[in-house]
């Protein structure tokens, strides 16, 4: 019920992929995926996390991709008429 209340207040399920350079190996890139509820388009929770990252984590951020679900609704499903068997 807590998630429903947040959605009614404007929060949306948000997924952020943070791509960063590894501190000990700057030529390598690592990906961190985080899913949370946030207010679009300002994303205050995401900005708070990124500010924390810049101050407290040695890894340099390469890029951030943000995806969100627009509105409240049922999950999308579809029927599949195939059966697979593994030996």
Number of domains: 1
Largest sheet: 3 strands, antiparallel
Structural Rg: 18 Å
- Widest sheet, order of strands: 2-1-3
Number of strands: 3
Question: How much of the sequence is in beta strands?
Answer: 35-45%
- Measured distance between first and last alpha carbons: 43 Å
What does this structure look like?
The protein is of the alpha+beta class and 87 residues long. It has one domain (2-68). Helix content is 23%, strand content 36%. The chain has helices at residues 2-8, 44-56, and strands at residues 11-21, 29-39, 60-68. The longest helix is centred in the middle third of the chain and has 13 residues, at 44-56.
Quick take:
By secondary structure, the protein is an alpha+beta fold. The chain has helices at residues 2-8, 44-56; strands spanning 11-21, 29-39, 60-68. It has one domain.
Features:
flat, 87 residues, 23% helix, three-stranded antiparallel sheet, alpha+beta
């Amino acid at each position: 019920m807590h998630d429903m209340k947040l959605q009614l207040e404007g929060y949306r399920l948000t997924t952020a992929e943070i791509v960063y350079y590894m501190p000990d190996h700057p030529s390598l890139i690592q990906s961190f995926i985080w899913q949370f509820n946030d207010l679009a388009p300002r994303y205050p929770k995401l900005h708070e996390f990124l500010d924390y990252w810049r101050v407290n984590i040695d890894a340099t951020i390469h890029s951030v991709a943000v995806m969100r679900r627009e509105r409240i609704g049922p999950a999308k499903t579809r029927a599949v008429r195939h059966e697979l068997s593994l030996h």
